[in-house]
């Protein structure tokens, strides 16, 4: 999953980025509306976390712009406002969820993952793929009854493939999903390395990660 955080408070932004990246979420940071607009012009995201009060305007301005041009990316709004009217106004502007400051980082992560699951269409907590089970909430993959130890990026890569199983996912989309703009020293070759690691760790399962020459990768489940 790749996420854009639009937040100008340094300490809060840093804490959120550290927490999410440790959980396997590639996180880009914009501190102003202008930076967020520039970033959205060149990159797509699975979820956006958007603060309301920013140095150059209100986050709801960006939200309305996105919805007006048909961008349905799930948006979770961070707000210090407590009134019901303010919350209703935020949701009416196109937000999918909101969280009132101060908040627990665990709740923020849980809500982000819930938005991602809802957008991807998998409502089940546990997805059964032949003799392999995948639980995105618990971040657990099991082969029969034995857990498979995946690193955070391996898990994120596998989750993208699972969400799109049976369909070819481009290398660019997979790369975007596990690396952020901060990973400037990472090349596309790193993706092939992670695919190779996944194939090795999933050996003996009903899962096949097929290479689609010139297109990307596709996850198939053997009957």
TrEMBL record:
* Keyword hit for Phosphoprotein: yes
Query: Where would I find the Response regulatory domain in this sequence?
Result: 2-116
Family annotation (SMART domains): REC (SM00448), Trans_reg_C (SM00862)
- Residues with the modification 4-aspartylphosphate, per the entry, are 51
- One Gene Ontology term from the biological process aspect of the record: regulation of DNA-templated transcription
Q: Which residues bind DNA?
A: 124-221
Q: Which UniProt keywords apply?
A: DNA-binding, Phosphoprotein, Transcription, Transcription regulation, Two-component regulatory system
**Signal peptide per UniProt:** none
Which Gene Ontology molecular-function terms are recorded? phosphorelay response regulator activity; transcription cis-regulatory region binding
**One CC-aspect GO term:** cytosol
Query: Any idea where the OmpR/PhoB-type domain is?
Result: 124-221
Name it.
Response regulator transcription factor
Organism of origin is Roseibium aggregatum
